[in-house]
Design brief:
Elements lengths: L4 E10 L4 E3 L4 E2 L3 E18 L6 E4 L2 E2 L2 H18 L4 E8 L9 H16 L6 H9 L13 E5 L8 E6 L6 E5 L10 H11 L3 H6 L1 H14 L2 H20 L10 H15 L4 E4 L6 E5 L4 H8 L8 E4 L6 E2 L2
Parallel strand pairs: 5-7
Antiparallel strand pairs: 1-4, 1-14, 2-3, 4-7, 4-8, 5-6, 8-9, 10-12, 10-13, 11-12
């Protein structure tokens, strides 16, 4: 009986946006994220000679070939490393809305890397697991680790992986405002590619990242939540600005996203430490003190429904479930 493996999602505070190598998923810049406890994926893998093709059962439903393609890259690498030829059955339960800017692919592909290598009898280091997860989904490389992690861009398969930065065992949390959990119109992968290829703003974004990253690492080291929040909010806004210059232009924001951003600015006027970040989707994540989570939730419930507000604390790295 193969074991179940759990990986939590992570939210990037210094964003990954753009690939240097599409095939290997080598990014154009380093990124830094916080792994969270509220959203996660549980996965189990069985290699079975009786199977004629790989199959993926996600939340009880068999998935199509397109969804399977990301997964097969990871399975093929595991088969190569373990000298296996058997096809695999993957069972996965997502405790994250899929493809709505809530990093379901990060937890999903990290859990797959752990479960598939475990089922194949491989004993991989965290660094090797991070590389394995990366070839399925770039951000998944960071979900191998709990707390803050940095994905080092590298230049080839062996040099591109995440490393732990800080365990985040201090007064930091995140509050999600879910304005829309539907599948988005432009996937991260497509949006990223279009922006890199066509947006005149992209180079400006790229050139500002080293400064953002070193400032963020200093702020995390100092446990300075004001600085963490300010740097993350500006970094996210710069990333989203690049999409408006793409051809054709696009945005992940909705009217509700704008309303949520304004609500965060209003919280600051009330004296709270509250800064937003957004990924390739309409939902807004508030970086705040963990000790303020319930007060912020109460304040925001005047504007948003309780079901739209999800509090999260720093989460653990990849682990086996008993």
């Amino acid at each position: 009986m193969n074991k179940w493996v759990r990986a939590h999602t992570n939210i990037a505070l210094i964003k990954y946006w753009g690939k240097e190598n599409e095939d290997l998923i080598i990014p154009k810049n380093n990124s830094l994220s916080l792994t969270l406890d509220a959203f996660y994926t549980d996965t189990s893998v069985t290699f079975d000679d009786a199977l004629t093709e790989d199959e993926l059962i996600l939340d009880g439903d068999k998935q199509d070939a397109r969804t399977l393609s990301k997964v097969q890259r990871v399975l093929d690498e595991v088969r190569t490393l373990a000298g296996l030829e058997s096809k695999a059955r993957i069972e996965s339960i997502n405790h994250v809305p899929t493809a709505a800017g809530l990093a379901s692919s990060a937890s999903g592909l990290a859990a797959l890397a752990g479960a598939a290598s475990q089922a194949a009898g491989l004993d991989l280091s965290d660094q090797e697991l991070s590389k394995l997860a990366r070839i399925g989904s770039g951000s998944a490389s960071r979900s191998i680790f709990g707390g803050f992690a940095e994905w080092i861009k590298g230049h080839d398969h062996d040099s591109s992986y995440a490393v732990p930065v800080d365990d985040a065992q201090w007064d930091i949390g995140m509050l999600f405002i879910i304005v829309n959990d539907a599948k988005k119109d432009v996937s991260s992968r497509d949006g990223m590619k279009r922006t890199v290829e066509t947006s005149p703003f992209y180079d400006g974004w790229l050139n500002s990242l080293d400064a953002d990253l070193s400032a963020m690492k200093q702020a995390v080291s100092d446990r300075d939540i004001e600085q963490v929040g300010q740097i993350a909010e500006r970094n996210a806004l710069k990333m989203h600005a690049t999409t408006l210059g793409a051809s054709p232009p696009f945005t992940y924001w909705t009217a509700e996203s704008m309303k949520a951003m304004d609500a965060v600015r209003a919280l600051r006027k009330l004296g709270y430490t509250a800064y937003f970040t957004m990924d390739a989707g309409p939902n807004v994540k508030i970086i705040c003190r963990q000790s303020d989570l319930s007060a912020l939730k109460q304040e925001l419930s005047k504007t948003f429904g309780d079901e739209q507000l999800i509090a999260a604390k720093p989460g653990p790295g990849l682990h086996l479930l008993n």
